[in-house]
From TrEMBL:
This is Thioredoxin domain-containing protein. CDD domains: TRX_family (cd02947). SUPFAM superfamilies: Thioredoxin-like (SSF52833). GO terms for cellular component: mitochondrion. Keywords: Membrane, Transmembrane, Transmembrane helix. It comes from Exocentrus adspersus. InterPro entries: Thioredoxin-like_sf, Thioredoxin_CS, Thioredoxin_domain. Belongs to the thioredoxin family. The keyword Transmembrane helix applies. Residues 47-166 form the Thioredoxin domain. It comes from the Eukaryota. PROSITE patterns: THIOREDOXIN_1 (PS00194), THIOREDOXIN_2 (PS51352).
Length: 168
C-alpha cells in the first residue's frame, strides 16, 4: 500500500474529500444553497462505497504480516510459489519495496506474497538468516529458490516473479 506520512493513500484521499465536502457545506449553508447537502451526500456515498467494495481475499490473507505459526502452512506448504518479504516499520527502503512487490505480484493469480515483520518474528529471521532488511525470498515447494537483499529496481523484481511463474 502506498502511504503518505503514516496513512494509506486511500484514507488520505478520503480525508481530503471530507474536508472539501465540509467546506462546501459551510459555504452552502451561508448561501442557503442545496449544494451543501449534495456535498455531504457525495462524501457519504463515496465513503460507503469504499467500505463495501470487496477485496481480493486470496492475496489479502498473505499480504498482512504473518507470524511463525502461519508461516509453515501459508508459505512452506503452499501449492503456489510464495515471495516472502522481510521488513521492519522503521526501514524506509521496506516502505518503498513492499508496496512495489504488492503491485507487481497482485496480477499474478498463481504467486502469493507473504510479509514478515522482523521486529515481531525473530524466529523466522533467525531461521532464514536474514541479516538486513528488506530481504526477499522466493519459496517454491518449501524450498528457497532465490533471494535478494535491499532495495532493487522493478526489473529485478519482475525477473524474480517471472522466474517463479515460468516454473509452474
Amino acid at each position: 500500500m502506498t502511504t503518505i506520512g503514516s496513512i494509506g493513500i486511500g484514507l488520505f484521499l478520503l480525508i481530503i474529500v471530507w474536508i472539501v465536502a465540509l467546506i462546501v457545506f459551510v459555504i452552502g449553508v451561508k448561501l442557503q444553497s442545496n449544494i451543501s447537502w449534495i456535498a455531504l451526500g457525495t462524501a457519504t456515498s463515496l465513503t460507503l462505497l469504499l467500505i463495501i467494495i470487496p477485496t481480493d481475499k486470496k492475496h489479502q490473507a498473505l499480504e498482512e504480516s504473518i507470524g511463525n505459526d502461519e508461516f509453515l502452512s501459508k508459505v512452506m506448504n503452499s501449492d503456489n510459489p510464495v515471495i516472502v518479504t522481510f521488513h521492519a516499520e522503521w526501514c524506509e527502503p521496506c516502505h518503498i519495496l513492499t508496496p512495489k512487490m504488492k503491485e507487481l505480484i497482485e496480477p499474478k493469480q498463481n504467486i502469493d506474497l507473504a510479509i514478515v515483520d522482523v521486529e515481531t518474528h525473530a524466529e523466522l529471521v533467525h531461521t532464514f538468516e536474514v541479516k538486513a532488511v528488506p530481504a526477499v525470498l522466493a519459496v517454491r515447494n518449501g524450498l528457497v529458490v532465490d533471494k535478494f537483499i535491499g532495495l532493487v529496481d522493478a526489473d529485478m523484481i519482475e525477473q524474480l516473479i517471472d522466474k517463479l511463474d515460468k516454473k509452474l
